[in-house]
Write a structure and sequence with these properties.
344 residues, alpha/beta, metal ion binding (chains A, B), 12 helices, Rossmann fold, globular, six-stranded parallel sheet, 2 domains, homodimer, Quinone Oxidoreductase, Chain A, domain 1
């Protein structure tokens, strides 16, 4: 089959790789209908060391079950399914608690012996625990929005949930990437009263407004912080959803959160430490979030996609074929595309 | 009157200072019955720069109201009262929410124009908002335990509350100082199932056992981390109460918290940053806590002291007169005393 590999910074190739086969009785084989490129894929795209044999990449996909191992009981060939961005057994204590990212027998896509999502097919370990059946056909117009259940939408939702967003909460969302926009959508869905979106790309913040942002702050740094303070009577918001992953974004987050408030972060951190000295201590700031257990949220988030109420798939503004995935990476890195859908 | 001043590291003096007088109609004058030395006083005692005129110190006291300003309505001369470690107006939005440490008109003791607690008397700003009346006499045997309501006991309680300790929670408490032991007491009171106390001073950890610790880990660093892991099936505890304030303690906290768990910190941080890179992110660790709004908890914590159920005052293992406060500091710095009560 064809699949995407990364050979180093800026070096994405689509190549022939061995067709996946069942290895464990709990595996399923899934033919990919749609996958996509994640903002977090841009980190290795920007800085990965040279790899002689390449490494599979891509962790968001939905597709059709083609074959199942003999211990898979909840799925059958022909089912349309979505995969969260980590696979998990679904039965360990962490999975039962809804923290599938810490599954005792789970792992990531595109790792040793496990296919990446940006390819024609994927062997899915622990298929019963990992995959969620979608009640749609292969040609459904809802596929892009359903694909967001793989990562970006639950990630924004996780950010809002861990921050404690609820009715009448004030929220600042930092970052107008697909995760930030998904966080806006999630915060709105949870009833947030004021949602300030910090972002400077007008086409993206326009979508942010459509998703529920009440205020847009295009300024960055000190100027942006001052603007959020102005919008909140000088105090900042009770919750801040940090959807970038850079230290500068985290510093902004800490500056615009109200005393006693919560900063939740879901952007894969490109830093090792965060400021947490006396100022943050005195102000009783909580820092939470992390890698989203997307699997935990899919059933909750799916109905509004199925009935057309919410369209998180609007974050996709470009579609490429599998062979054009390298161009898709470049478009996202250049900020020419917000999020790229891949149709193998 | 006599009051304690700090002139620099290791240089504590008790001197004559002007008697406090009412300045604002919302002030009260309080004659101090008991005060004490806080673990956090040891940080300036260890490292404060030389001060030509000295700086008042002490932020925990209870006493008798001697005089009230004309706008003070809830207190009268003769009332026995306890003061939390910051003063606050009691009516701003932060106070109403229970975050009096962020009061819009509040402040600390021993700052510009405000007396410290380690003296004979204190002018209390915003007396109605700040002071809590104690239903005991000046000679009550409960004064030491009631004095803990000023800081150390609510601080331990804040740590447990913000960490989300409740029935059946597993807890690691880092630090066998008075705050750590108070956190043990608070965690037990909140119903924690397993309370692992990390501390190496046997007399202190013995008190920790009395307060409710189920396990004692005297080892430090990697060895201590391994021991906590052994006690928790390899996972660590769901909550960690960091009651020291050193970076090493914070690193231990992050190492012994279970994935998805919470580290709460109430030890005044002697560090500027905390590790929060990909490992902590992937594990969905929450970092919370901060300076405890003691005022918010006093009414809740007082009844069990009054009826004798709980005796947080057991953290006091030495009593000194006001003139002997310098020796009290030295005894705490030498770890010869756990916490020193001052009887002016």
């Amino acid at each position: 089959m064809r699949a995407t590999l990364i050979y180093g910074a800026g070096d994405i190739r689509v190549e022939n790789v061995p067709d996946p086969v069942l290895r464990q009785p709990t595996d399923a084989l899934v033919r990919v209908l749609r996958s996509c490129i994640c903002g977090s894929d841009l980190w290795p795209y920007g800085s990965a060391p040279v790899s002689e044999h390449g490494r599979r990449i891509g962790h968001e996909f939905l597709g059709v079950v083609e074959e199942t191992g003999r211990e898979v009981s909840g799925l059958r060939a022909g089912d349309v399914v979505v995969a969260p961005f980590v696979w998990s057994d679904g039965i360990c204590d962490f999975c039962v608690e809804g923290l599938q990212t810490s599954c005792r027998h789970g792992g990531g896509w595109g790792t040793q012996d496990v296919d990446g999502g940006q390819g024609e097919a994927v062997r899915v370990p622990h298929a019963d625990g990992t995959l969620v059946k979608l009640p749609v056909g292969e040609d459904s117009a809802l596929l892009p929005s359903l694909l967001t259940l793989s990562d970006v939408y639950p990630t924004g939702h996780h950010c809002a949930v861990t921050a404690g967003v609820g009715p009448r909460t004030t929220v600042t969302v930092i970052g107008d990437g697909a995760v930030g926009l998904s966080a806006v959508l999630a915060a709105r869905r949870l009833g947030a009263e004021q949602i300030i979106l910090m972002g400077r790309h007008k086409d993206r913040t326009d979508l942010g407004r459509e998703f529920g942002a009440t205020d847009i702050v295009p300024e960055r740094g000190e100027e942006g912080i001052e603007r959020v303070k102005e919008l909140t009577g000088g105090d900042g918001t009770r919750t801040v959803l940090e959807c970038v992953g850079l230290e500068s974004a985290m510093r902004t987050a800490l500056a615009v959160v109200r005393d006693g408030g919560v900063v939740s972060r879901v952007g894969a951190p490109q830093y090792q430490q965060i400021p947490a000295g006396f100022p943050e201590f005195r102000r009783n700031i909580t820092i939470t979030g992390g890698g989203a257990p997307a699997r935990a949220y899919i059933e909750e988030l799916m109905p509004e996609i199925l009935d057309g109420t919410l369209q998180p798939g609007k974050v996709f503004d470009r579609t490429v074929s599998l062979d054009d995935v390298p161009a898709g990476y470049q478009a996202m890195a250049d900020r020419a595309a917000l999020k790229v859908l891949v149709q193998p």
